[in-house]
Design goal:
heterodimer, A: alpha+beta, Ubiquitin-like (UB roll), Alpha-Beta Plaits, N-terminal domain of TfIIb, 4 domains, 5-stranded mixed sheet, 3-stranded antiparallel sheet, 8 helices, B: alpha/beta, Glutaredoxin, Rossmann fold, 4-stranded mixed sheet, 23 helices, about 15% strand, globular
């Protein structure tokens, strides 16, 4: 089917919403609560558009496309409404971009930029929310929260940890952990799904604070080294220091769809650890010494051969790591069965 | 049946209970017994007699003599003078306390026809007025389609505020082939100044119950819920008693009146959120979730409570159903206007002589309501404004005093009928203060789901506070209009959209009250 957006015709499929078609075609409509993984919430109301034949403005995030639908996203009336919604959001929080970690990667900022809002038009006192830095990896600044609800959906429906929810009412609405506990004492397992989904700087990576602007960090995609699931990671690397600053899940990865566990997202300090082994070690007379790869591999191969010759193939066994990929495990068992000649092969993925 | 020389109705409602109605009732019975009159005089508990701020109220039949502000000290005198000797106690009679007489308008009552006349705790009294005959007719002699057709023909429109045609609403749900459908009565009467539903439920709970059973039969719902606000303790008590009695009489349960219709009702008690009067938020709350509205479509009539088709109707709407079924759509069309037939229950408050409740034909003008049912302006002060429709209503100036009030006609004057609350203000009242109170209310009741409502209310509150303190600027007024306009255009549900009417009407109709605070 086809729909018209601002006078131009676009291909659409019946399962899509107006916002999805627009974004797919590079037409920006301000949106703060919609995320592809949390679905339409129609909460922020910034994505309102005009549709021919419908009364009033419609939120495009939860508006299913119909054939020959005629949508206007940039008329003066539409933009005025969008502008007021975003202005109200900016006016009622502590949205000072200069020192904000999310600067440059903030969806509220994007919306304000698109709508040409230089300063919030109104000023109100915001409730005095204390900073919550009680948890290991996540910094919670409720002054910046726009109550979009993405973290709530992410926590309850995506990763199903069921820690975050809204509490209180109206302007005093805030996200809480369990029964309004500090994040550090709540049942949160620090998977960081909420940080990944937060459109503003309300939930941020604690250890990355002050360590680099989003545009200064190189984004490198890789696979998580921890377990066999193979989640896709996006490393944010300070290339000059050769240091990983933060890790995000890759949203369009079919394996993890952006989600990560606490180890994958925050357990990367070993990369830069001085205690990390970077060379093989050989034990001689009870002492470990550094060696080269050729020497170490030759030593292992020759010792294996000796044992096999003396005691037979079944006197050795192979234990593979669950951290490596399926393909590597496949190669390993093939090696054990065909080259070594034993079925004694196992892996460590045990609970 | 026993006949009595006199019947004393004592109005038992939340208002009179606070003034010690129960104590007075006990004392009254004791005094009557002391004079050996117990066989001749019957004391009957009734719902509210129709007016408020009048403490404990007694109405003595025959003669419909109404005593107001009755205290314990007055009881011996009333019993001795009126009940024994037949002389009225003139200093307590309502007509002498207020300059004008009070018009009970019994002939034009539909939903309140029994209120204040029968004992709401006794199903037999309701049966005695012809109660449950409409149900019998509906179940045994009418098809579901015929009932819906009759309701459509009657032109009944939802009395909760929006005025959506009731028959049309039902016709979305009735044809759906679902194993389970629900019918929900919205008794979460939260609009400030509105207490019509409370008085209907307190005064005549069986009428609502009868209407609910007929309506559920029409749409094919086998389970009904009455979602009622927690503060309405007496309503909950009386409704529960009515439900228990109906079960006992076989009016609820399996195979009602020998038909193949099974039905039961449950009361769900709300926890005090204005937004839960919005039907989707009400459903969320009923399911045990946070009371916040859902996206529409799908509408509750198709996907409602627990994902099942659910019709949600207001108390007053459903209390009209027994009358429409038993006496027909044409009878109902004999009341009100052609666009909006029937009657409307109004609650009149503020600077009038007899604040309270009245039921009048649709299309009655504000002036008539104030003069005939509110007893005119208190102390003969000058009328300045009326806030019609509750907090989400409109500040009307005296220019609209003679406009016929119904859903369509008021719309032409950018006003709404809403829930039927009328707050009358005399020339002493500062509209800025009134609007402040309205905004403070909405700020408190915003559920926080959507941005424009939560944030907009906060900023409106800040702006009007500045004006109140004399620190406001003229541009603040424009900003208030802009914000409420944007809230109207973008808010998730009717709560956030509601601010536009009061803000716009106050600032345009009573601009001088705002300008005088601006330097």
């Amino acid at each position: 089917m086809k729909i018209m957006i601002n006078g131009k015709s676009y291909q659409a499929s019946p399962s899509e919403t107006v916002l999805q078609v627009a974004l797919r075609n590079g037409i920006y409509i301000p949106h703060l609560c919609y995320h592809q993984r949390t679905g339409p919430a129609a909460k922020c109301r910034a994505c309102v558009v005009q549709v021919e034949g419908m009364n009033g403005l419609q939120t495009s995030c939860n508006l299913s496309v119909r054939d020959n639908m005629k949508v206007i996203t940039d008329s003066p009336a539409v933009k005025a409404a969008q502008k007021m919604v975003v202005d109200l959001a900016l006016s009622t929080g502590k949205h000072d971009c200069l020192a904000c970690e999310q600067n440059g990667d903030c969806e509220l900022q994007d919306a304000a930029y698109y709508l040409g809002i230089e300063h919030p038009s109104y000023q109100v006192e915001i409730p005095d929310y204390p900073l919550d830095d009680s948890s290991e990896f996540i910094y919670v600044e409720r002054d910046k929260c726009i109550s979009c609800g993405r973290c709530v959906v992410g926590c309850n429906q995506n990763v199903v940890n069921e820690v975050i929810n809204f509490a209180y009412r109206g302007f005093e609405t805030k996200i809480v952990f369990d029964q309004d506990l500090p994040m550090g004492t709540s049942s949160c397992v620090q998977c960081g799904e909420c940080v990944q989904l937060c459109p503003v700087g309300a939930l941020i990576d604690k250890r990355a604070r002050g360590k680099g602007r989003p545009w200064n960090l190189e984004k490198i995609e890789t696979v998580c080294p921890y377990c066999g699931v193979g989640c896709k990671l996006e490393l944010h690397v300070d290339t000059l220091k050769n240091e990983i600053i933060r890790i995000k899940g890759v949203e369009d990865s079919p394996t993890n769809e952006g989600m990560l566990c606490v180890k994958g997202r925050y357990g990367f300090d070993f990369v830069h650890s001085p205690e990390r082994l970077t060379k093989p070690m050989i034990k001689e007379n009870g002492q470990l010494r550094e060696a080269e790869w050729d020497e170490a591999i030759n030593l292992v191969a020759s010792r294996f051969n000796e044992i096999i010759e003396k005691h037979g193939s079944d006197s050795v066994a192979g234990l593979a790591s669950a951290k490596v990929t399926n393909e590597e495990n496949f190669v390993f068992q093939k090696f054990m069965r065909r080259e070594v000649g034993t079925n004694n092969v196992d892996h460590c993925a045990r609970l | 049946m026993k006949f009595y020389r006199n019947v004393v109705l004592i109005g038992i409602d939340d208002d009179s209970l606070q003034s010690g109605a129960r104590e007075i009732e006990t004392l009254l019975k004791r005094e009557i017994a002391r004079h050996n009159l117990s066989d001749e005089i019957n004391v009957v508990e009734a719902g509210a007699l129709g007016f408020f701020g009048t403490g404990v109220t007694l109405m003595i039949h025959p003669g419909q003599i109404t005593y107001i502000n009755v205290t314990k000290e007055d009881i011996p005198e009333i019993v001795e003078e009126h009940l024994l000797k037949g002389r009225t106690v003139s200093r307590l009679i309502m007509d002498s306390v207020y300059s004008r007489g009070y018009d009970f308008n019994y002939k034009h009552r539909i939903v309140l026809e029994n209120s204040g006349l029968i004992n709401p705790d006794l199903i037999d009294e309701y049966l005695g007025t012809g109660g449950y005959e409409a149900l019998e007719k509906a179940l045994l002699n009418m098809s579901r389609e015929e009932i819906i057709e009759e309701v459509k023909k009657s032109g009944l429109r939802g009395r909760g505020g929006a005025g959506f045609p009731t028959g049309l609403k039902w016709s979305f749900t009735a044809p759906l082939d679902a194993k389970q459908k629900y019918f929900v009565i919205n008794a979460d009467e939260g609009e400030p100044g509105t207490f019509k539903d409370r008085l209907i439920m307190e005064g005549d709970p069986h009428k609502l119950l009868e209407g609910l059973i007929i309506s559920s039969y029409a749409v094919g719902a086998s389970k009904g819920y009455i979602y009622i606000r927690g503060e309405y303790k007496l309503c909950i008590e009386r409704l529960q008693r009515a439900i228990d009695q109906a079960r006992e009489y076989g009016i609820l349960g399996k195979k009602i009146f020998g038909s193949d219709f099974d039905f039961d009702v449950e009361i769900k008690v709300g926890a005090g959120a204005y937004v839960c009067g919005e039907e989707t938020a009400l459903i969320e709350s009923m399911e045990g979730k946070r009371g916040q509205p859902r996206s529409k479509p799908p509408f509750p009539g198709v996907v409602g409570a627990w994902q099942k088709p659910t019709v949600v109707n207001n108390v007053e709407t459903i209390a009209n159903i027994p009358g429409i079924i038993s006496q027909g759509a044409d009878w109902f069309r004999g009341f009100g206007t052609s666009d909006c037939p029937g009657t409307k229950a109004y609650t009149i408050m503020g600077d009038v002589s007899t604040p309270g409740l009245c039921e009048v034909d649709m299309g009655t003008s504000l002036r008539t309501i104030i003069d005939n049912y509110g007893g005119g302006m208190k102390n003969n002060r000058k009328f300045k404004a009326a806030l019609v429709g509750g907090a989400a209503g409109v500040f009307l100036s005296d220019k609209l005093l003679d406009v016929k009030m119904d859903y369509n006609n008021l719309h032409e004057y950018s006003a709404v009928l809403g829930s039927g609350a009328i707050l009358v203000m005399n020339d002493d009242v500062d509209i800025l203060e009134m609007l402040w109170s309205v905004i403070r209310f909405f700020r408190h009741e915003s559920c926080g789901k959507c941005g424009p409502c939560a944030n907009g209310n906060e900023i409106l509150y800040k702006l009007i506070n500045n004006l109140r303190k004399g620190e406001g600027k003229k541009t603040d007024l424009d900003q208030m209009l802009q914000i409420s306009e944007a809230m109207f255009n973008t808010s998730f549900c009717a709560l956030g959209q509601s601010l536009l009417l009061p803000v716009k009407s106050a600032v345009t109709n009573f601009k001088e009250d705002f300008l005088k605070r601006i330097n």
